[in-house]
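retry 2 of 3: previous attempt timed out while embedding alpha-L-arabinofuranose. Reduced batch size to 1 and resubmitted. Inputs unchanged:
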Amino acid sequence: GCSSSSGGDGSADGDGTVTVGFAQTGSESGWRSANTESMKAAFSTENGYDLVFNAADNDPAAQIAAVRDFINQGVDAIVIAPIVEDGWDDVLQEASDAGIPVILEDRTVSASDDLYYSWVGLDFEREGTYAGEWAVEQFDGTPTKMVVLEGTTGSAPANDRATGFDDAIAGSTIEKIDSQTGEFTRDGGKTVMEGFLQKYGVDGIDLLYAHNDDMALGAIEAIEAAGGVPGEDIQIISIDAVKDGLQALIDGKINYVVECNPLLGELAADLVTQALAGDTAEKAIYVDDETFTAEEAAAVIDQRAY
Ligand code: AHR
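retry 2 succeeded.
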């Protein structure tokens, strides 16, 4: 290849193929499945890529080990959806030393942005703000007991969705009575909600803020099993806007959904192309999110790709 410092040899491989290692978080949610599909479609053989895919089952140490394997294999570029924000400095430095560009997609890291080429994803804090603003509109003035299902502990979306929401409801009559991680999974949401219901009863909870649709969907099962009516006895706000989430919104079981767009593959592939061409890119590329009421969801659900 023509690249002097690269661990691999970029698009200048003999066969023109670009080898990309992609370290995915795992397969915790409907959002994640859509994101994986989007990445696989963008980094396809037809598009000239040889994609080495790893899903780390949400184990941060396993994900770092996968990235280290990519470096040792001498891939041309590495794409990471970082499970958690912390702990990336060493392995990103190793990739940098090996001359392999790293593109982050979806989640951010706390490491210096000198250690990677660029990040593309969503503004998680703004998603939390949108959710919190809706809660204030609906509930401020009435004493409201809220529980929270958090995403993966230490992940950027769990951290930032909490911050955006908490800032938005500050000074309102909404009281957070409990908050625990449901790991962004349906099972996790169900189990943690069962615990909340045992502790406070259906009558002791007015509002649930779930950091993603899957946990909200799990919580709906728990509320129904406890004899409650989701969306009425306990109102629900969630984030992602995958089809199952929008359907529950249309059915009145969820009351408000904030979108998190998982279709980041082509944007990530563009960044890989730019990195291998030696171009400079913005360090952070934000994709816009929308919000949905039941009516708005009904108008778009048939056209949604995920
Ligand atoms: O990082 C994005 C989050 O990860 C999504 O909101 C959640 O569903 C996923 O698992």
